[in-house]
Amino acid sequence: MNVPGLYDFAAVAAGNIHSMALRNDGTVWTWGWNLNGQLGDSTTLSSFTPIQVYGLSNVLAISAGHLHSVALKNDSVAWSWGRNVHGQLGDSTQIVSLIPVEVLGLTEITNIAAGYDHSLFISRDSLIAGCGYNEFGQLGNEGLNNYYTSPQITEFSCNGTILPIELLSFEGINDGTINKLKWLTSSESNNKYFIIQHSINALDFIEIGRLNSSGNSHLQQEYQFIHEKPNIGINYYRLKKIDFDGQYDYSQAIAIMAKDSQKNEICSIFPNPASYHIMLDILPFDANAIFEIQIFNTLEQLISTEIKSSELSEIDISTLEAGIYYIVVTYKKCKQVKKLVITR
């Protein structure tokens, strides 16, 4: 089907819950969810039809991130808008912007890319710069900081952090009261051991165990680790690979859901306390089950209402002030109230 109101377009980009289109006249149009201002129309109102991005013209390229957007104008300057918790807009702040703001510190940009909560840029001299979330080293600068609010030049070299180990897979499953982790390597050289790290928010990881590696091997190796009594809700895991020279590298993080089978509840909320978003895990009923999700403050004033199905959903709370709230989940005649604490 055709998107109503769109014609003469040159490019499109799909974010997590919003979309972008670039017309041949250099204007940018967006539609979808807009709680973080990722539509760039100076409001937080969502739109089912395309609306024009405020004050932006002469655009050559667009890119849609998780909850932010980036555009490149014909003067080789980049502009961005939307969620900015980790500095992904590149304007040296962590303030959400409902309209485009200039990416600072970079000129002569030739290409752009928006990730989950980070942004990347290529300059005319073929250097890569990045800003935003960097917990897993996605900016390519050896993960020196967890985030950057202004673009940092990435320098790739042959003596970087790539270690002599090839990780084929890293996966895990929940088995009652334990989480089972398993990973495979295709070859290893000078690898000393693995540190297994755990997190409940995908940001702060702690060590929960170590396993010695094979050291040197050209054969496929399998490793297993059991995490006893994991947290109820989503558990995040990653591997820190250490070699004999002390160099290290991280694997990508995986997530495992651990449910409390002894509690008869409609849903669970995590993390709690939370700062910018929560995950709402609604227990499965039937395939067409519809739930009403309401958020109230301590004065019993209704803050928001959403309709969800029986699945894991992310709820953005970045616009709510720190304090205590109550989430009411209703399914037919069954209702459950959850207390939520928001901290900053």
**Mean of residue pLDDT?**
82
Give me the secondary-structure category: mainly beta
| Low-confidence runs of at least 5 consecutive residues | 155-163
Strand element count: 27
| CATH homologous superfamily placement of the largest domain | Regulator of chromosome condensation 1/beta-lactamase-inhibitor protein II
User: What would you report as the Rg, rounded to the nearest angstrom?
Assistant: 23 Å
N→C terminal distance:
43 Å
- The total of helices stands at 0
Give a short account of the largest sheet: 5 strands, antiparallel
Strand content: over 45%
CATH class of the largest domain: Mainly Beta
Globally, the shape reads globular
Provide the helix percentage.
Answer: under 10%
Element pattern in H and E:
EEEEEEEEEEEEEEEEEEEEEEEEEEE
Topology:
Blueprint: E1 9-14, E2 18-23, E3 28-32, E4 47-52, E5 59-64, E6 68-73, E7 78-82, E8 97-102, E9 109-114, E10 118-123, E11 128-133, E12 147-154, E13 165-175, E14 178-188, E15 191-199, E16 206-212, E17 221-228, E18 233-243, E19 248-250, E20 254-258, E21 267-270, E22 277-282, E23 290-297, E24 302-309, E25 312-316, E26 323-331, E27 334-342
Antiparallel strand pairs: 1-2, 2-3, 3-4, 5-6, 6-7, 7-8, 9-10, 10-11, 11-12, 13-14, 14-17, 15-16, 15-18, 18-19, 18-20, 21-22, 22-25, 23-24, 23-26, 26-27
